[in-house]
Design goal:
The protein folds into two domains: about 90 residues, Rossmann fold (3-Layer(aba) Sandwich); about 100 residues, Hexapeptide repeat proteins (UDP N-Acetylglucosamine Acyltransferase, domain 1). The chain is about 15% helix and about 25% strand. It has three helices and 22 strands. The chain has a seven-stranded parallel beta sheet, with helices on one face. A five-stranded mixed beta sheet has the order 3-4-2-1-5. It has a five-stranded parallel beta sheet with strand order 7-10-13-16-19, with no helix packed on it. Helix 1 links the parallel strand 1 and strand 2.
Length: about 220
């Protein structure tokens, strides 16, 4: 059975990764890549054509091709949101990818243009909105909701009953306690522990490890 055709927006690392997963673990075949004309630097990427976004509907029409917007969290997810909305306005169907190696349960709902990688454990009664990225190895607790346009990196623990507002970014190894509510466009830095509700546009950061003045070759006990 022939795979459905999809155009990937982007030619960066995110698009490279998306192309790999779609090629090896999805019912879709990437037909082309697209970027805004002013950012077009080469005519091909991964041996496929790169077409200016302004011309994509003429060369790869939405009646025959879906689209996937493969952009990271730049501008607290603003750029990915902008291009997702632009693709929808052109009448493209926005596909989602859920890894066959992710753990999901009956009744799981996921929106458009989501990218859910391997080893995500998504418990029952979780709702994930549109244009959400879950990188690998996260725990999403039961009855939690992740709003549109969020980006969750890796090894994040989102406990049960958590409500995450739209356009949030959550860094690696962050932990969010059960029944906490995050406002919109929050940035939760790597390693942060969130124990109470968070207002819109809040930024939480955890201090990094300190460099010791003692070099490793002088350590007597290790």
């Amino acid at each position: 059975m022939a795979k459905a055709s999809v155009v990937v927006f982007g030619t960066g690392e995110q698009a490279d990764v998306a192309h790999f997963y779609l090629r090896h673990d999805s019912p879709y075949e990437v037909a082309a890549f697209t970027v805004d004309a002013k950012y077009l630097q080469a005519s091909s990427f991964n041996r496929l054509p790169v077409v200016p976004f302004e011309e994509i509907a003429q060369q790869f029409p939405p009646a025959a091709n879906a689209m996937f917007v493969a952009i990271g969290y730049k501008g607290v997810n603003a750029l990915r949101t902008e291009k997702y909305l632009a693709a929808k306005a052109m009448a493209y169907k926005l596909i989602s990818y859920v890894s066959s190696k992710a753990t999901v349960w009956p009744g799981f709902y996921v929106g458009e243009n989501c990218f859910i990688l391997e080893d995500n454990t998504i418990q029952p009664f979780v709702t994930i909105g549109n244009n959400v990225t879950l990188w690998s190895g996260n725990h999403i607790g039961h009855h939690s909701t992740i709003g549109d346009h969020c980006f969750v990196t890796s090894h994040v623990v989102i406990s049960g009953g958590v409500n995450i507002g739209e356009a949030c970014f959550i860094g690696v190894n962050a932990t969010i306690r059960d029944h906490v509510k995050l406002g919109k466009a929050c940035v939760i830095g790597a390693g942060s522990l969130i124990l109470q509700d968070v207002a819109d546009f809040s930024v939480y950061s955890q201090a990094g490890a300190q460099l010791s003045r003692v070099p490793s070759f002088r350590l007597k006990k290790l």
